[in-house]
Design goal:
By secondary structure, the protein is α+β, with helices and mostly antiparallel strands. Helix content is about 50%, strand content about 10%. It folds into 3 domains: about 100 residues, 2-Layer Sandwich (Double Stranded RNA Binding Domain); about 80 residues, DNA polymerase, domain 1 (Orthogonal Bundle), CATH 1.10.150; about 220 residues, hpI Integrase, Chain A, CATH 1.10.443. It is built from 17 helices and 8 strands.
Length: about 450
């Protein structure tokens, strides 16, 4: 092997051969130049770790051109010092590269955590997908829980770093008496984190081991006849369409959102029926609601008011619009200001009752429970009451629900007609004795 001082002159003078040519520096042991048959010139450092019996190793310093001989020598001296200290230059370089790769991965992971895996980013993606597969009301509630409860405490926090302790603190901040709110946070958080876990964005669902908040106690509030009469009479004092809204709730017993979003295209005056489509029913089961004479009068009144507003010359209350929201203040959208309307109704009730004072605390949903209880008082069969309410439970669940296909159409009409007569009677107590419960009427027939 050729030896000599590695300098620009000696490097330029070294020519390629049929195999690799080497020039070893006589100043720095182990420092050398390799010239390949293709003419490439590369600076090397050759060393042993562990004495003469150890394996000889080579470290590539770099190519001639980008590196000058002096730069290569300086690097060789540093490598020689490392070898003397027992540090393998190649292993040190591998370790440095590995550390650099680890640092890059950590930086990328941190950027991902702070970016696409930040709670608000994941929650936004989840809500977007959740809204595609759920009813507007359910999706609206999910969005409210995220924005009002979860986001203020978790914004900016990477999803994988969120623990059950973080979520428990959010639930604990909600007063104990607000059972429904606490349960909603628990439920929607569980769905959100379960969705993220299924996508591989987190390793586990932190809600899984949390104690489920106590469910709200089932409400039992049923309005007495005099209370129901007060609600009906106060509804007359409300501006349309809210007066009709509360009366239709009383007469049909359907859910608040179902009545509020009532559309003319769901109504048929000829058959006196209201068909609630499956996509609007809470349980996704279409339902036919027979309309009593009292309900028809309310709808006739709204139809006539619309004709007057639209300046139609040939007005006829029994000619209903073909489509469009029935209960609307602006014509294009259905009513949604339930809380404000309930407040105005309670105010009207208090003013009408005078010294009797306001009604004991009640909710709009209590009107539905009042109808169900009233039908039982009138002798209506339980299965018919459930059919009126469009419940899928009890007698309609399981095997019975599969094989029992009777729609109770006529029974529902009889029940709701009897209920409308009962409501009319309690508005005129002197005539109350004229009302005959359905059970008694059926027995006398």
């Amino acid at each position: 092997m050729a030896t000599g001082t590695i300098s620009k002159r000696s490097v330029d003078a070294t020519k390629p051969g049929t195999r690799d040519q080497f020039l070893w520096d006589d100043e720095v042991p182990g420092f050398g130049l390799k010239v390949t048959p293709a003419g490439a010139k590369v600076y090397l450092f050759q060393y042993r770790i562990g004495g003469r019996g150890a394996t000889t190793r080579r470290y590539t310093i770099g190519k001639h051109g980008p590196l000058t001989p002096d730069q290569a020598r300086t690097r060789a001296k540093a490598l020689a010092h490392m070898a003397e200290e027992g540090t393998d230059p190649r292993q040190a370089e591998d370790d440095a590269l590995a550390a650099k790769a680890d640092a890059k991965r950590e930086a990328e992971a941190k950027a991902k955590l702070e970016g696409e895996l930040a709670f608000e980013k994941v929650a936004a993606r989840w809500l977007e997908e959740y809204e595609l597969h759920h009813k507007p009301r359910t999706a609206e509630q999910a969005r409210h829980v995220v924005n009002a409860r979860l986001l203020p405490a978790l914004k900016g926090k990477p999803l994988p770093h969120i623990t059950r302790t973080d979520l428990q603190a959010i639930i604990d901040a909600i007063p104990l008496k607000h059972h429904a709110s606490r349960l909603a946070v628990y439920a929607y958080a569980s769905v959100l984190f379960g969705w993220a876990m299924a996508r591989g964005e987190i390793g586990d669902n932190p809600v899984r081991l949390m104690a489920k908040p106590e469910a709200p106690k089932a409400r039992k509030r049923v309005l007495a006849d005099d209370e129901l009469a007060s609600v009906w009479k106060a509804a007359d004092a409300l501006r349309d369409p809210y007066g009709a809204f509360f009366k239709l709730l009383i007469l049909t017993g359907q859910r608040r959102e179902e009545v509020a979003a009532l559309n003319w295209n769901e109504l048929d005056r000829a058959t006196a029926t209201w068909t609630i489509p499956a996509d609007r029913a809470k349980n996704s089961v279409a339902s036919i609601v027979p309309l009593s004479d009292a309900a028809l009068r309310e709808l006739d009144r709204l139809a006539l008011a619309k004709q007057q507003k639209d300046c139609i010359n040939d007005q006829d209350a029994t000619r209903w619009p073909k489509a469009g929201p029935v209960l609307t203040t602006y014509g294009a959208t259905s009513i949604k200001s339930y809380s404000q309307a309930k407040g105005e109704l309670d105010k009207a009730i208090s003013e009408a009752r005078g010294e009797q004072g306001p009604l004991a605390a009640w909710r709009v949903h209590d009107l539905r429970r009042t109808l169900a209880t009233g039908l039982q008082r009138l002798g209506v069969r339980f299965e018919v009451t459930e059919a009126v309410l469009n419940h899928v439970s009890g007698s309609k669940a399981g095997v019975a629900g599969i094989y029992q296909r009777h729609d109770w159409k006529e029974e529902k009409r009889s029940a709701l007609d009897a209920w409308a007569k009962h409501v009319a009677a309690i508005l005129k107590p002197a005539e109350q004795n004229n009302v005959v419960p359905i059970g008694a009427a059926q027995r006398s027939a």
